[in-house]
Each structure stands twice: as structure tokens, then as C-alpha cells.
Amino acid sequence: MVNYKKNFVKLEFSSLPENVALARVLIASLMAQVDFTLNDLEEIKVAVSEAVSNAIIHGYQNRNSGIVVIEAKLNKEILEIIIEDNGVGIENIEQAMTPTFSTDPDRMGLGFVFMKSFMDNVEVISEVGQGTKVILQKKLVDNGSCALMAT
């Protein structure tokens, strides 16, 4: 039986494109406490990058005056990452999660596709004019590929 570490981090930062890298480093640092494969690490970092980029590009419409909040929790068998903004919100979440849909014609519209393919669960909560919360979850199982380190 594995004794699971529990940990929590929360960071708020300006809605600047440069801060996508900051979010990736934060998650990578937290994941260093967990025995992930390099592939798992890269996939989770991509999912986080996409969610943070969406907050900046779509939520705040590239205005750098917004605040993005990222929380990450290691708890039992789950890594949960929450990315939240107080931007414009999403009018139709189902449509926004459709492959190739984007409100920005210069974007490919694959952010949610990547998030859904790399994470075990993706939940989007949004209200127009109030902002968006994206909850990403990855199961941490003791199967040799993605196991929590014993304490």
C-alpha cells in the first residue's frame, strides 16, 4: 500500500502570455514530488498551458490587466489543477469544447481537445461576463507509470 503525499499550491498572476511558462514551471515543480513518466509530465504541462492560454487569449481577450489563478492539489490518487479567470466567460461551453472551434480566427481551436485527451477529467464552469473555471484531473495510480511516492 502506498502512503500518499498531500500538497497544495495556489498562484495568481497577470494575464500576460509570458506567464504561461510560469504556470508550466509551477505544475512541473509540484509534479516532481510524484513519480510521473516524462510523457505524463509533458501532457499535463500542455493541458495547463492550453487552459492558461485560453484564460489570457479568450477570457481576457489579450488584455494584460486581468488576473489568472492556478491552484493545484495532490490528494490521494488525484492531481487536480484549477485555472480560473474573471474574464468574458464562455457563452456555449459545449460549442467551445468542439474541435477546431475558436472565437479567435488565428487560433486552431484545439485547446480543449488537448486538455481532454491528456487528462482523465476536464470540467468547465463559466458564466458570461463573470469568467471561467477549468478543472483538470489526472488519476495517480500505483502501476509503475504514474504513482505517488511513498512518504
Alpha-beta content class: alpha+beta
* CATH architecture designation: 2-Layer Sandwich
Mean of residue pLDDT values: 85
Shape type: globular
Tell me the fraction of residues in β-strands, as a range: 25-35%
Highest-level CATH class: Alpha Beta
Low-confidence stretches: 143-151
Q: State the helix count.
A: 4
The CATH topology turns out to be: Heat Shock Protein 90
Strands of the largest sheet, in order across it? 1-3-4-6-5
Distance between the termini: 11 Å
SSE arrangement, N to C: EHEHEEHHEEE
Helix content: 25-40%
The main pleated sheet reads as: 5 strands, antiparallel
Task: Please name the fourth-level CATH homologous superfamily.
Answer: Histidine kinase-like ATPase, C-terminal domain
Count structural domains.
1
The total strand number stands at: 7
Report the C-alpha radius of gyration, rounded. Answer: 15 Å
Quick take:
The chain is of the alpha+beta class and 151 residues long. It has 4 helices and 7 strands, in the order E-H-E-H-E-E-H-H-E-E-E.
Describe the structure.
There is one protein chain. A hairpin with a 2-residue loop joins strand 3 (67-75) and strand 4 (78-85). The protein contains four helices and seven strands. By secondary structure, the protein is an alpha+beta fold. A five-stranded antiparallel sheet has the order 1-3-4-6-5, covered by helices on one side. The chain starts with 6 loop residues before the first strand and ends with a strand. Helix content is 31%, strand content 31%.
